[in-house]
Amino acid sequence: MLRATLKGMLSRKVRLILSTLAVVLGVMFVSGAFVLTDTLNRSFHNLFTTIYDDIDIQVSKPTDAVGLTGQPVMANVPADQVPVVAEVPGVARAVGGVFVDGAKVVDKSGKVVPTTGAPRFGANWIDSELVSIRPGGRAPAADDEIMISANLAKTTGYAVGDTVEVLTTLDPAKRPYTLVGIVGYTGGRDSLAGETIVYFTEPVAQQRMLGETGVYSEISVDVEPGADLTTVRDAIAAVLGPEYAVRTGEELAAESANSIEDGLRFFTSFLLGFAGIALFVGIFIIINTFSITVAQRTRELALLRAIGAERGQVVRSVLVEALVVGLVASVVGLVLGLVVGSVLGMVLGNVLSGGTLELAGVALTPEAVISAFAVGIGVTLVAALLPALRAARIPPVAAMRESATPDRPLTALSVSGAVVLAIGAVVLGLGLAGRLGDGDGNLWGVLGGVLTCFVGVALLTPIISRPVVAALGRVLSWGAAGALGRRNSGRNPRRTAITAAALMVSVAIITGISVVFASIKASTEDVIDAGFDADLIISADPLTGGLAQIDPAALEAVRGLAGVEHVAGQSLDFARVNGSDTFVRAIDDMDAAVAMLRLRTVAGTLEPGEGEIVVDDRTARAIGVSVGDTVRIQLARTGEQTMRVAGIYERTPVAEWILVSVADAHKGFSAPAPVTAFVKLRPGANEQAVLDQVRAAIADSPEVNVLTIDQYVAASAQIFDFILFFVQILLVLAMVIAVLGVINTLALSMIERTREVGLLRAVGMRRGQIMSMVTVESVVICVFGALLGIAVGAGLGVAAFQAFRDSGLTSLAFPWPLMVFYVAAAIVVGVVAAFIPALISARQNVLRAIAYE
């Protein structure tokens, strides 16, 4: 039986190649994700080992606060702690250092030098074995002198002697400095991982990076030769007390590498999610392939049953075939995953570091190997199980009388599909409503609900396909050849349905996301029209997705313009309020904000004083406070303190904030300067003229720009377009697998109908008509799959919209252009997918085709 199975596979190897490709692509994605993250993890581990190689021990003062960037905030270390550390036995040298993210260099065009996410450090100069001053330069000696890292010099074209403007997170005003040196790393490297560094004199570094002099961000310690690092570390910790963190260089490297690994773990999960979608689509293809081949082998399997083969042997023969397919696909997919992972590692490493990260060698990890074979073999066996069981139930005598099994009633399948769809819809609804507990329960509920809905729709698709395919065929077919193609597409509803379902999955996901994004855009426009009375917005470019500080002096200049009536600058930061992390804001002109944001006072005053907060009415109810009550609040740069509720306002779609005073923001925010400003023009003012004047006024804040409200909304909407494009790129793999499924189904169907095609040719049908017949069949299947995906995706999008109505979604919108595009693309895909099967069928020898068994 085994020999018969293997010989049969060799005779059908062309039939199995396309289904193997579906598994290969999925395995490639899975193993490539593991190879990619392993390569980057080891690369960053090597990087941090290099960075901390010349550090024996480092002292810092962490807090449990989180800054605007989402990173933990470090408290300043008083300078008088340096001699205390230096006196600890075993310490050879203790040096206070400033090394903080947030120093931004302005290039020669007047714009801040951008980064790809790498930090922009500001520091004082300390001699180190890791870095050195390039020839012709020197360390800054005066407060108006700086050095910059070599990659900054290369990017900007600055040379020693040039004037360089720098702004910082705590001091967003541009200030000029004379460049006196350029710093590079050992080995001739300009940067380790794309980071940029500006070196100031110590007092300037302290003031501009830490907000005050006489403090440091860290103390670097060199131990005496022969001293035990652990012993010295513990002695320093005992002297300084529990509020200080004392760590060795190895510990610092491990902590930094672990933080990167956590971020990459999310990226891995993201990639594996799309790999799962691709494999889910691949399951449809494999089921279809084995179902068709089993139907085509009816006589062969019946003959085996007739000469004594048991049902179990028939099942095992089909599963052995699937095992071989899965094994081959796993090996090929693993090899391709190694290549894809290494290529993506180079690309992503260059993006993250600006081309400076030294990648570790590519290696096959146990996770990649195990996942490749588990996924490849497991998916194939699971997908082939149903056709195998169906093959075992073939009655020998009846099967030998028929060349194919008759189509079965769809009642049981349709009822099962309706039940599964209902279960999926309930689970999805509970997940979207947040009713599945805390933690990741709701996320898994949403994912499981969507998957179950897809399965339910796939089971219902055969009964849906009959009327829909018939209607599509009448629209898309032409002539006798087209009519035959239309009838062929409806000949086997199960086969047509499962092929269309594979294409449906990707289209549904894209459509669902697009409905949500279109609704967000429409809701944003409605909210601004209804609750926003500003004309201009000053902020960072929305496309950067980041925040930038506005120089307060620039806002004062804007307020002084003749055509400006109101200006309200808004600062933003993370804070811990009654133990929960949330955003808090400060507004520098509350009267202007009340006018432009149309705020209504519920109780108290909307102008918080120092030590006071203002909240919206919903937040007040949620935390159980009223005017005069107190809350515990911890800002990024201050410890936990008690603040009094000074006022409550009516929540609006554009105002649902906790507000603190500007004085408290200045002391406690990690970035106290405004990040956004709203501008209201005087009646009759020329908008374009005022716009030009505002641009001139904020010229010294090179990170920000001024836009009209319409321009800002349009620019913000482009972020969603980019995300959608990125998702489409990742779903291309699933779409490719679905297209392979269409090709596979057509190819196998045409093999099954070889004699039929020969007879059509014998009675006068031309080759072109044969190709038209196959093309119509392919186009009908693809358009049916696209329409099904659009319908399912629209339903998912509407469900998500209803679930998030309380979060600000007010207007349901559908992406009609995208939906039309997918239908048109389905027609093109159908034509392309049909080309090879149609060409092969049209070129068949007529007499051989008629004699085909």
Could you characterize what this model shows?
The structure is a single chain. This protein is of the alpha+beta class. Helix content is 57%, strand content 17%. It is built from 25 helices and 25 strands. The strands form 4 sheets. Strands 16, 17, 18, 19, 20, 21, 22, 23, 24 and 25 form a 10-stranded mixed sheet that branches. Strands 5, 6, 7, 8, 9, 10, 11 and 12 form an 8-stranded mixed sheet that branches. A hairpin with a 6-residue loop joins strand 10 and strand 11. The longest helix is centred in the N-terminal third of the chain and has 48 residues, at 249-296. It is globular. The mean pLDDT is 83.
Please summarize what this structure is:
Helix content is 57%, strand content 17%. Helix 13 packs across helix 15 (493-531) and helix 15 packs antiparallel against helix 21.
Instruction: Report Rg.
Output: 33 Å
Q: Which class do the helix and strand fractions yield?
A: alpha+beta
Helical coverage, percent range: 55-70%
Count of alpha/pi helices: 25
Molecular shape: globular
Beta-strand fraction estimate = 15-25%
Major beta-sheet overview: 10 strands, mixed
Question: What's the average pLDDT?
Answer: 83
Parts with pLDDT < 50 across at least 5 consecutive residues: none
- Total strand count, please? 25
Distance between the termini: 22 Å
